[in-house]
From TrEMBL:
In the phosphorylated form it could act as an anti-anti-sigma factor that counteracts SpoIIAB and thus releases sigma f from inhibition. PROSITE patterns: STAS. This is Anti-sigma F factor antagonist. Keywords: Phosphoprotein, Sporulation. Gene3D superfamilies: STAS domain. The lineage of its organism: Bacteria, Bacillati, Bacillota, Bacilli, Bacillales.
Length: 117
């Protein structure tokens, strides 16, 4: 299975929607696409939507943590939303939720990051 990446900017927020599998085969491509999008636009905050993400391994965790550090250095916030149970378990076991919030959907993530007008 492949990975599909959809990105949308809303003001200074980059919303990244991932579908498929985020693993060692796709991690580098996703990392490059996200970094380019963050640098190209005035991105302050990042929301990762995993509504259609079926699988993630430790390479995917590396992508998430790297983008978290990048956004944090810029003074921004990052969150994840729409996480399926299998991916949720991996994120929980990794301790990710100790450093960034999880939200039910994109709307609550935008509200939770206090970036809604």
């Amino acid at each position: 299975m492949n990975l599909n990446v959809e990105m949308e900017h809303q003001r200074h927020v980059l919303i990244v929607r991932l579908s498929g599998e985020l693993d060692h085969h796709t991690a580098d491509l996703v990392r490059m696409q996200m970094d380019e999008a963050i640098q190209r636009r005035q991105t302050e905050h990042l929301i990762l939507s995993f509504k259609e993400l079926e699988f993630m391994d430790s390479s995917g965790l590396g992508v998430i943590l790297g983008r978290y550090k990048f956004i944090k250095q810029k003074g921004g916030k990052m969150a994840v939303c729409d996480v399926k149970p299998a991916v949720y378990r991996l994120l929980e076991m990794s301790g990710l939720f100790k450093i960034m919030p999880i939200y039910e959907n994109e709307g609550t993530a935008l509200s939770g990051l206090e970036v809604v007008s």
